Task: inverse folding
């Protein structure tokens, strides 16, 4: 069955960095767009970034451009999100999700990894 397992979250000081990982299994990873979506405390889901199955196209929400970098290793069926220059407002539960179409049609989600930015 399809499984998505995120890791790499933690407590970091403002300005710090983290690398989130999403290990996928149960499907042909390279055939799917994959996305990172986050949920801040008390707020709704917020799309952050996505990447095409072959890694040839990436998209970011405006306010993370230049700080977040999405990547994937199809040989390892793993999606990554490098987050630099972390801000307190980046505090959220970060999910990876499989996107059926590349237009935000998610059918599977991981359990999330918590990122907390605080001094």
Result:
């Amino acid at each position: 069955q399809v499984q998505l397992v995120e890791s790499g979250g933690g407590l970091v000081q403002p300005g710090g960095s983290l690398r989130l990982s999403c290990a996928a299994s149960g499907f042909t990873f390279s055939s799917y767009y994959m996305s990172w979506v986050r949920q801040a405390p008390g707020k709704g889901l917020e799309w952050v970034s996505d990447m095409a199955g072959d890694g040839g196209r990436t998209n970011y929400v405006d306010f993370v451009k230049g700080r977040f970098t999405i990547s994937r290793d199809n040989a390892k069926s793993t999606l990554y999100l490098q987050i630099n220059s972390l801000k307190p407002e980046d505090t959220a539960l970060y999910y990876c999700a499989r996107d059926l179409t590349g237009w935000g049609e998610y059918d599977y989600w991981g359990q999330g990894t918590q990122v907390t930015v605080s001094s």
Notes: The chain has a mean pLDDT of 96. The chain has no helices and eleven strands. The radius of gyration is 13 Å. The first strand starts at residue 3 and ends at 7.
